[in-house]
Design brief:
single chain, 345 residues, alpha/beta, Rossmann fold, DNA polymerase, domain 1, 2 domains, six-stranded mixed sheet, 9% strand
Length: 345
């Protein structure tokens, strides 16, 4: 069966950049100190930065060798001012993230151009994030006749995992080994995919084992627990109760319906809290916190949910992988990546 690989290009390039930095830059305490050592970052003889490009390309080559996808799409972020800020009014969304350093910005443009020149479909738009394109691609193309995989470092992509779509999550090598041992996964086991080191494959069952809820409930989980890294507030003090509540009620609406059925009556609310404690194992009742933060919780849901209805004009065949090897070799030569040239030859 053919494979469709959807890559979060922004996540992959950023991970590649920070994973291949000289220590002088990586451990510098201030931006000014980092800038003093930019010249030590891998670059060409003409001064073009290449540490992220090289690392990402090497990973892509390794993926191609091991899994040979028939179709590939790469999605990138363009701006932080997406619809989540302009339409939902969430100014705090990803507001705590620093602006990308100049060497990484330069390589974003270079990688986007590189992929397009060699024949890869690249998706990006100022109104949407890479994950919105990934969700829309999955929604349009996943089927029993196509194995769909999404490659990223970000855990919010758990919401896309299904019977037909798996998540290839980038993490550190030791965590991959730990997960493989914990779940009895090994090369040669039926249904197990051998991937480059540092990438772990999540199925629906593995998402449940790790997160406590199935993929279809990940957005609801994030709406309650929040995600500080993305500026999603959630509901403070309710994190440990989120999973049991979701598994019991199935949705935010159902959780709040149970609360509202109490009609503000203290005896009924105590009975509900007692039920949560005895049947769901929730020690400290989250009822008051959920009541007080209802609006925030529902906004968090909107922020956490990937937009899956972006119009995708391309057909599946438009994403068929046909690499222009001549163009690829020219680009690798330009960036002086001799080891990769030897690899493709």
């Amino acid at each position: 069966m053919k494979k469709f690989l959807i890559i979060d290009g922004s996540s992959m390039l950023s991970t590649s950049y920070y994973g291949n930095l000289p220590k002088s830059v990586l451990f510098a305490k201030t931006d000014e100190e980092k800038e003093k050592h930019f010249s030590e970052i891998l670059h060409t003889s003409k001064g073009e930065y290449t540490n992220a490009l090289f690392t990402m390309l090497r990973t892509l080559f390794s993926l191609y060798k091991k899994v040979k996808p028939g179709y590939v799409a790469v999605a990138f972020d363009v701006s932080r001012d997406t619809f989540r800020r302009t339409q939902l009014g969430a100014d705090s969304y990803k507001a705590n993230r620093k602006e990308a350093p100049a060497p990484l910005k330069e390589q974003f443009i270079a990688m986007e151009n590189l992929l397009q020149k060699i024949g890869c479909q690249v998706l990006m738009d100022k109104d949407y994030e890479a994950d919105d394109f990934a969700a829309s691609l999955v929604k349009k193309f996943e089927s029993p006749n196509l194995n769909t995989y999404v490659l990223t470092k970000d855990h919010d992509y758990f919401q896309l995992v299904s019977d037909y779509t798996r998540l290839w999550r980038v993490t550190d090598k030791e965590k991959v080994k730990d997960l493989q041992q914990r779940y009895g996964l090994y090369a040669g086991k039926e249904g197990y995919t051998t991937l480059p080191s540092g990438i772990f494959e999540y199925t629906s069952d593995l998402v449940y084992a790790e997160e406590g809820v199935f993929p279809k409930h990940i957005v609801t989980l994030l709406s309650i627990t929040g995600d500080p890294g993305d500026g999603i507030p959630g509901c403070k003090g309710v994190s440990s109760a989120a999973g049991p509540l979701i598994n019991e009620y199935g949705s935010l609406d159902a959780i709040y319906a149970a609360i509202e059925d109490c009609e503000g009556n203290k005896k009924k609310e105590k009975a509900l809290s007692d039920f949560w404690k005895s049947h769901l194992g929730i020690g400290r009742s989250p009822l008051n916190a959920l009541k007080e933060n209802k609006e925030t919780v529902y906004q968090s849901y909107q922020l956490a949910k990937m937009k899956d209805d972006i119009p995708i004009k391309q057909s599946l065949e438009d994403f068929a992988l046909h690499i222009d090897k001549t163009a690829l070799k020219e680009i690798l030569t330009h960036y002086e990546m001799n080891s990769l040239i030897a690899e493709i030859e």
